[in-house]
Amino acid sequence: MLQVRASPTFLPSTSSSSSQAPTHSPFSGKSQRRGGLAAAPSANRVARRSGVVMAAAAAAAKLEDADALIDSVETFIFDCDGVIWKGDKLIDGVPETLDLLRSKGKRLVFVTNNSTKSRKQYGKKFETLGMSIDEEEIFASSFAAAAYLQSIDFPKDKKVYVIGEEGILKELELAGFQYLGGPTDGDKKIELKPGFYMEHDEDVGAVVVGFDRYFNYYKVQYGTLCIRENPGCLFIATNRDAVTHLTDAQEWAGKWWINGRCNSWFN
């Protein structure tokens, strides 16, 4: 679930009409203010609000008639990591399952909390694995971060500092937002010598944190300066997964440890 920590400067009011998500999003809905956090609706929650019946919500009783269950569901929402694939290896039976559902006229949506790729890049991954998936059927947390900023009318003259990878950068660019950071800051270091003062861009209005294999202290300090010294700067976390499936050999540490450290340092 996309989470945002913010001052009231950029938060949509819950007393006025709801802010709409971008028209190119397969889901829409207003953000919910909870204490100091603005929680953008997760794909599952938005889907339920839209009347989409989730197969996972079926009763826990033993399935006796699979055809009847499939016929009762209009839209199937699939996670990707660990459900469609593990790393770059397709899970057995997935193509046949998707073909069956499409043959019955079912709508398919693929969601992922992995922000390292954009929707277009995920489309390419599906293609590499031998599946043809339309970009509009993909809902990634990288896209959700950019869509959230659009939904609250984030000022176009403000910039976004990214602690994350290419997927977030590409979605921000497609949405027309200025950004800095990302993988290019992965090699930057801080020399903690007497009198050292680190500059930061005062036009940064949001810090977006996603899964980052190039996480370092420079990024933490830069993000901290933006959050603490730029009035109204948002802190947006793409997800809180404890583990992820980067390869088919084992589970890997997810983004929760990055979130936890950033959240404690930024406050």
TrEMBL record:
UniProt keywords (A-Z) are: Acetylation, Chloroplast, Hydrolase, Phosphoprotein, Photorespiration, Plastid, Transit peptide
The segment annotated Disordered runs over 1-42
**GO MF:** phosphoglycolate phosphatase activity
Q: Give the compositionally biased regions (Low complexity).
A: 7-28
| InterPro entries associated with the record | HAD-like_sf (IPR036412), HAD-SF_hydro_IIA (IPR006357), HAD_sf (IPR023214), PGP_euk (IPR006349)
User: Where does the record locate the signal sequence feature?
Assistant: none
Q: What class of enzyme is it?
A: hydrolase
Q: Which reaction does it catalyse?
A: 2-phosphoglycolate + H2O = glycolate + phosphate
Identify the SUPFAM superfamilies for this entry.
HAD-like (SSF56784)
Q: What is its EC number?
A: 3.1.3.18
User: Record keywords: Chloroplast included?
Assistant: yes
Transit peptide listed as a keyword: yes
Provide the function of this protein: Photorespiratory enzyme that dephosphorylates the 2-phosphoglycolate produced by the RuBisCO oxygenation reaction.
Family membership, please give it: Belongs to the HAD-like hydrolase superfamily. CbbY/CbbZ/Gph/YieH family.
Q: What is this protein called?
A: phosphoglycolate phosphatase
- Species source reads Sorghum bicolor
